[in-house]
Design brief:
Strand 2 and strand 3 form a beta hairpin. Helix 2 packs across helix 3. The strands form 2 sheets. An 8-stranded parallel beta sheet has the order 4-5-6-7-8-9-10-11. Strands 1-2-3 form a 3-stranded antiparallel beta sheet, with no helix packed on it. The chain has 11 helices and 11 strands. By secondary structure, it is α/β, with parallel strands linked by helices. It has a single domain, classed as TIM Barrel (Alpha-Beta Barrel), CATH 3.20.20.100.
Length: about 325
């Protein structure tokens, strides 16, 4: 995937901020927490801490969502293995204990939805759950059955968010999703892509369809979304879910052998995972990121990014310069 140069990033960011000013998007709330979207002077800022947990307002409703969620691609696809399921239940328990909200999955992810349902059934406290899954089939009629099966697997009667996975037959499925939303069967609708693909088609959907969320790849190296999708999401009032914030683990392969820069402490980062995540969620148009992990210790690290200070524009530029110099 092509990498954006720093000068290109700066130019793109200037264009976004110019647009943001016209849209009433704030770039700071005077607390050192970071940047955010707000509804104008005197409005409650999108960035806020509840019990210290950083959250973002969902643009369409103002409902707050912790900035760090959890993905389940590969990591929760463990079948019926009793020991592995118990381990994933502990990961999910740690996620909720540390203030997590969104759990994202898909029928494409093998046994992940069944494992999520099993784990949720074992947990006493899952009140902060924001359930998100997807429809993934080229047939509209089968999409209905698939969503009903997801309800059964998760053990829920209503998902918070239903998304069209990788834009597959999106026009047909969005009709179903809008009908389900009108009936109260789901709360929010959305579409997804990943790996920097189909951004033009995504932009057309964002402009022309009554959706609530979009999901796409964004991380400290893969910044193509800054060109069009992130500014457009802010303009259209859409929630943004960031997938692949660690580039599928490749960021650790590339940078983990290097020491964490000392200035990372200025944004309360104790490890590379927190630095990568805080870069992603500090963009003013991002609602939350959904890193995936199968390990409790890694979940603790990830959730650390849901606390403390976030980078401002100058720090974000510094972060980019640093990783591109390694």
């Amino acid at each position: 995937m092509a990498r954006m140069t720093h000068s290109r990033y700066a130019s793109s960011r200037r264009a976004f901020l110019a647009q943001a000013g016209a849209l009433g998007i704030a770039t700071g709330i005077g607390t050192g927490i970071g940047t955010g979207i707000c509804g104008g002077i005197g409005a409650r800022p999108a960035w806020a801490a509840s019990d210290g947990v950083l959250s973002r307002a969902i643009p369409k409703t103002g409902e707050r969502l912790p900035v760090i969620g959890m993905g389940t691609w590969i990591t929760f696809n463990v079948g019926n293995d009793t020991a592995l399921r118990a381990g994933r239940a502990k990961v999910l328990e740690t996620f909720f204990e540390r203030g997590g909200g969104m759990v994202d999955s898909s029928p494409m992810y093998g046994s992940s939805e069944a494992v999520i349902g099993h784990c949720l059934g074992r947990l006493a406290d899952k009140g902060s759950l924001f359930s998100a899954t997807k429809v993934w089939t080229p047939f509209k009629w089968l999409g209905v059955r698939q969503m009903e099966e997801s309800e059964r697997l998760w053990g829920t009667r209503r998902f918070d968010l239903m998304q069209v996975h990788n834009l597959l037959d999106w026009d047909a499925h969005l009709e179903t999703l809008q009908a389900w939303k009108a009936e109260g069967r789901i709360r929010y609708t959305g579409v997804t892509t990943s790996h920097g693909s189909r951004h033009e088609e995504m932009a057309e959907i964002m402009t022309g369809q009554p959706i609530d969320f979009v999901q796409f790849t964004y991380n400290i190296l893969d910044r193509e979304a800054e060109d069009r999708l992130l500014p457009l999401a802010a303009e259209r009032g859409l929630g943004v879910i960031v997938n692949r914030p660690f580039q599928g683990g490749a960021l650790f392969d590339r940078f983990a052998q290097h020491p964490l820069p000392g200035w990372a402490a200025e944004i309360d980062c104790a490890n590379w995972a927190q630095l990568f995540l805080k870069f992603a969620v500090s963009h003013p148009a991002v609602t939350c990121a959904i890193p995936a992990t199968s390990r409790v210790d890694h979940m603790r690290e990830n959730m650390g990014a849901c606390y403390g200070r976030l980078p401002d524009a100058a720090m974000r530029a510094r972060m980019i310069r640093h990783v591109e110099s390694l």
